[in-house]
Design a protein that fits this description.
alpha+beta; 7-stranded mixed beta sheet; 8 helices; single chain
Length: 293
Amino acid sequence: MLYEIMNGAMSPAKAIDSQKSTEYVSVSTTKEVSTYLTDIPADMLPQILENTSIRFESHEDFDLLCIPFYEFEHRLRDSPPIYIFLHPGHLHFVCDQCSELASLLDRFAHLNKSEASIGRLVCAFFEYILDDDLESLDKIEEQIGDLEDDVLTDKQGNFTKTIIDKRKHLMVIMRYYEQLLNILESLSMNEKHIFSKNSVRFLNIIYGKTQRLYDKTKSLREYVSEIREAYQAEVDLRMNNIMKILTIITMIFMPLTLIVGWYGMNLKMPEYAAPFAYPVVIAISLMIVVVSI
């Protein structure tokens, strides 16, 4: 799938014409990548596509971005990676699951009929992948709030695994945003002069939005840490109550144990011959229990 941008208008194209002063945008799968990326050495492409980690690479003739199509409901490592090759006048998207990306380009071409450019398209891509993130973080915040209610209302349950899972999930999201911030910072430097001043301004705005998402995720992780401390305090308090009951029981029965040990000795006690010795010992034991309580 190939598009050309001429005079601010983006439209489908059949082939790349290097003689025209036109910007080109392509979308291809990893098998079709060599169709449009003719300027990149063929032996370099397999090495690039094997690495699916989030990153920004600055090569001599082009910049490379690798960003996952991440959704909060799934794990980050299961998200399909999108490779973006940037060099003056050319923008190439490489992704094996291109349906969402193709619809994004079609919508961008429709909404920017006179102001389309590679820089604005890159900004639109980042806006698209960050579009629902705040809503997803709000849902996670609600889940953490429910977890806090369960912990503080003394519901019986082991919340340790749930708390650890939440902390790990938020750590993954934090690292995701941290890497996006590094990519956006590198792009906004515009070392190869691919973007206009207006596009760089938009990139800085997106950088600020990503920074706010990162800060919110960080605060949510601290929130989970506070819940973990509160849960640990509840567990300690419950354990203290149990130990207090056991201590009371022990203090009540210690004198009785002394009496049992005393009369369990193989000795002839003088009171053995007394007719009321046994009822008296019972009465004394009951009195000890009452006084101890």
